C-alpha cells in the first residue's frame, strides 16, 4: 500500500461515492486514505470494506489524516473554494469536481492563489475531455479536415434534476460542461452569451425554467448553441455536432444495446451521467493519479475552471435580465495555457 497514492475524498454523495469506488476498484496506483462528509454515516458507507480509509465530518481533518497525499473534491460547488485553498496550503495535488467555484470572484481567488504558488496543483473535473467521442472530435478539429470551425450544435438532456436544482444551475452546473468543451474543442474564448426560454416543460418542477436555449459567441466568430433540458424524462443525452467550412462531425449518438423481444425492437438509452460517462470518469481519474504520481499536473486547469465560472455567470445574467451579455475574463497568469491547449 505504501507506494499507492493516498487520496482524501471530500463529499460522499453521488459523485464522491462513485469516485471512492473507482479509486478503490477501477484505477491503478491509488488508494482511498480518508473520506470527509458532514454526513459521516454516508462517508462510512462509501468506504465500507476499504482497508485503511478513515472517516471524518470535516474536510480539514481528512486533509490532515495520515497517508493523505492528494485530494479529490466532490462536495457541493459552494464548498470547493475553501477546500481548494486548504489543499494548496498543504501543497496537495487536487482533482476538483466542476464547477470549480460557482462564483467567478471566488474562482479567480483560487486561480490567483495557485498562480502565486508558481506551479499547478489543481485539475478540474471536466470529464468530457476524457470521453472517447469528444477526444476524437477534438483531434479531428485540430487536424484541419473540417476546415475552420463555424458552429457547434449541442444537446444536454437529463432525465430529471435533483430537488435543490435552480434555473441558474441549468447554466452553471449543466451547461458548465458545454462551456468547457466549446473552449477546448475550438481553442477560443467565449465572448458573449444569450439565453432564451422556450415554453417550460410540464415535466419540470414548478418555477424551474427548463428547458433553456443558450447561444454563445466566440472570439473568432463561431457560434455555439446548447439545448439544455434537465427534466426531459426520457434519457441522459449529450450530443455535439461541429460544423466547419469543409465538413461536419457528430458525437453522442453511440448506440446502446438493441433488444428484440415480443415482436419488436428497442434500443437502450443511458439514464444518467454515471452510465453515459463511466469510461470518461475512469480515464479522467486514472490520468490524474498517473500524473500526480509522476509529480505532474495535467488536464483542465484552475484557469479553465475560472473561465467557465465567468461565462456561466454571464449566462445566468442573460437568463434573469434577458438579452445578450458580453463576457470579460481577467488577465490570464503566465502559469496557465490559453483555451484549447
Ligand atoms: N462531472 C460530472 O459529471 C458531475 C456529475 C454530478 C455531480 N458533479 C459535481 O460533483 C459535486 C458533488 O455533486 P453530487 O451530485 O455528488 O452531490 P451530492 O449532494 O450527491 O453529494 C454531496 C455530498 O457532499 C457532502 N458535503 C457537503 N458539504 C461538504 C463539505 N464542506 N465537505 C465535504 N463534504 C460535504 C454532502 O453531505 C453530500 O454527501 C458537485 O460539484 C457537482 O457539480 C459532477
Ligand atoms: O452535476 C451534474 C453533472 O455535471 C452532469 O454531468 C450534468 O449532466 C448534470 O446536468 C449536472 O447537474
From TrEMBL:
It is an enzyme of class 1 (oxidoreductase). It comes from the Bacteria. Residues 138-326 form the Gfo/Idh/MocA-like oxidoreductase C-terminal domain. InterPro entries: Gfo-Idh-MocA_inositol_DH, Gfo/Idh/MocA-like_OxRdtase_C, Gfo/Idh/MocA-like_OxRdtase_N, MI/DCI_dehydrogenase, NAD(P)-bd_dom_sf. The keyword Cell inner membrane does not apply. Pfam families: GFO_IDH_MocA, GFO_IDH_MocA_C. Residues 6-121 form the Gfo/Idh/MocA-like oxidoreductase N-terminal domain. It catalyses: myo-inositol + NAD(+) = scyllo-inosose + NADH + H(+). Its EC number is 1.1.1.18. Gene3D superfamilies: Dihydrodipicolinate Reductase, domain 2, NAD(P)-binding Rossmann-like Domain. Homotetramer. Belongs to the Gfo/Idh/MocA family. Involved in the oxidation of myo-inositol (MI) to 2-keto-myo-inositol (2KMI or 2-inosose). This is Inositol 2-dehydrogenase. It comes from Streptomyces similanensis.
